[in-house]
């Protein structure tokens, strides 16, 4: 069906995807979008806008309402149904929640960094006697550490690592399968200023080498230069979707946050934002 690169199915396709939680509240309301492989994208919005709900939908932790006609609300690489383990070999997932689960588990058992990365092959929170680690697994884990410039952490105990070091290992763990895309949910939470900048530079390198990056954040400062598309979320709906220079405007962001937002862009291509005066002029 998809014989040429131009006809390849998108990484992600949502058609009127709606997710309802708890008291029948729509945390996502008729979301429609397509993200192509190689299209580095950020999903940006204030707290409560639906960013984490969208992430949980993509990673199959939540499911959309069924369409009356039976058509799928979400396709990943052109398929509606996936084995979760197979899907996670194509999509590397990094989030604060995963960080806490893995770091807590590994730190308690004084496990070194390399073992944490290898565990990505085994979908486990550690290496256990009954599990067989092959030379190929070990080799690919070392390659993933090298990609993240974290080989020096291979023998270091997780318990002795900083948050930034452990976050690098979590990405290396996601990279062992050589995934086609990385899905990152608020990945710099808990990092100091220097660790955040180093982390973002690592993401830039991965993007330049061909790994598709889908970044979910509420920090405009994390929209690194390789990201070309910005999706703005508000109240569970797409507020704006377009090229970065168009989406990251005073007008759109001020309306998104319902406050006068002033933007600046530095020579490296990063943006910064601050709240302006009440009598601001939209541009």
Please give the structural blueprint.
Blueprint: E1 12-21, E2 25-35, E3 41-44, H1 51-58, E4 74-76, H2 84-90, E5 91-95, H3 96-108, H4 113-118, H5 135-147, H6 163-175, E6 181-185, H7 193-208, E7 212-217, E8 229-234, E9 237-243, H8 244-247, H9 250-257, E10 261-265, E11 271-275
Helix pairs in contact: 5-6
Instruction: State the helix count.
Output: 9
Mean pLDDT: 87
Can you tell me the CATH architecture of the domain at 84-179? Answer: 3-Layer(aba) Sandwich
Round the Cα radius of gyration to an integer and report it: 20 Å
Low-confidence stretches: 1-5, 279-283
Number of strands: 11
Provide the structure class: alpha/beta
What do we call the CATH topology of the domain at 84-179? Rossmann fold
Largest sheet: 6 strands, mixed
Based on Cα principal axes, name the global outline.
globular
Widest sheet: strand ordering: 5-6-7-3-8-9
What is the name of the CATH superfamily of the domain at 84-179? P-loop containing nucleotide triphosphate hydrolases
The amount of helix comes to 25-40%
CATH hierarchy class name of the domain at 84-179: Alpha Beta
Distance between the termini: 44 Å
Q: What letter string, H or E per element, gives the SSE order?
A: EEEHEHEHHHHEHEEEHHEE
Strand content: 15-25%
């Amino acid at each position: 069906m998809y014989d040429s690169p131009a006809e390849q199915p998108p990484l992600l396709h949502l058609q009127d995807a709606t997710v309802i939680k708890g008291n029948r509240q729509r945390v996502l309301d008729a979301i429609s979008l397509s993200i192509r492989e190689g299209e580095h994208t950020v999903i940006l919005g204030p707290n409560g806008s639906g960013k984490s709900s969208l992430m949980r939908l993509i990673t199959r932790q939540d499911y959309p309402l069924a369409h009356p006609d039976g058509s799928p609300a979400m396709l990943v690489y052109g398929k509606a149904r996936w084995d979760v383990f197979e899907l996670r070999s194509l999509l590397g997932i990094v989030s604060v929640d995963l960080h806490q689960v893995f770091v807590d588990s590994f730190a308690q058992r004084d496990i070194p960094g390399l073992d944490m990365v290898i565990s990505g092959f085994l979908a486990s929170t550690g290496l256990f006697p009954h599990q067989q680690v092959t030379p190929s697994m070990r080799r690919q884990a070392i390659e993933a550490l090298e990609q993240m410039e974290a080989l020096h952490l291979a023998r270091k105990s997780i318990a002795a690592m900083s948050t930034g070091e452990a976050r690098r290992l979590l990405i290396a763990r996601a990279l062992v399968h050589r995934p086609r895309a990385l899905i990152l949910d608020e990945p710099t939470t808990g990092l100091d200023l220097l660790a955040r900048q180093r982390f973002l530079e690592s993401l830039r390198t991965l993007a330049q080498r061909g790994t598709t990056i889908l970044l979910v954040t509420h920090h405009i400062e994390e929209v690194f230069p390789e990201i070309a598309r910005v999706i703005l979320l508000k109240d569970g709906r797409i507020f704006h979707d377009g090229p970065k220079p168009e989406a990251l405007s005073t007008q759109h962001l001020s309306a998104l946050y319902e406050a006068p937002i002033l933007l600046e862009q530095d020579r490296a291509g990063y943006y910064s934002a601050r709240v302006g005066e009440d009598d601001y002029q939209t541009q």
